[in-house]
Amino acid sequence: MPVAPLSQKEIQDHLAELPGWSVETDHLTRVYRLASHFAATAMVVHIAQVQEELDHHSDLTLGYNTVTLTVNTHSVGGAITELDFQLARRVEDLAPGHGAG
Question: What is the pTM of this model?
């Protein structure tokens, strides 16, 4: 399925539905805080499974008790697309199950 870059208005409309997410330069980003390193590691594995399902892989950074996502679509020059927001929504859906805030 071809994807196209979103306009700034479309990006802002999507962000309004995703508290905690923001745009930094040309990507979406979100930092999750968890109770422990083990909980953060488990969340990273779960996110990786979602990325495989969507065939859309973002940068994931694992900290002691944090998980940071940096999301954009490389196939359209690193722009933000609907696919990025689809991934963000899926991660938001799984985050509470890991105690992420």
Answer: 0.95
